[in-house]
Amino acid sequence: MTLTEELDKWFSIYIRCRFAEPHTGTVICYTCTERYHWSQVDCGHWQRRGHWTIRWNEDNARPQCTSCNREFSGQDEIFEEELRAELGDKRVDALLSTRGDFADLTDEGMREKIAYYKSTVKKLYAYNTVVS
Description:
This protein is 47% helix and 11% strand.
């Protein structure tokens, strides 16, 4: 597994677990509001993962059901509307303004991010064997 793949994996688990109800693991799809177990949803990105500067930006990612994320291409308009209501225009506009910037994430930087997300997930959801 490449560093990018591993970072994607742990970032995705983190985002989905971060929004999960602690005792049930239930999350609400950010765009259709249906309820699922966190392991049954995707880590949806408002601005696509091809924008390397914000690929692992927590403001850019929320749990999404596979239907909204894959079949409906992320429901971008709804996603943006929800982000603006949650984070405010200033933070959402900041995402847009940096998405085309040059990303200079070193291997060491990626390893640090992997360690952070892996550790955080295990602290929050140590009972869940899926993340071990």
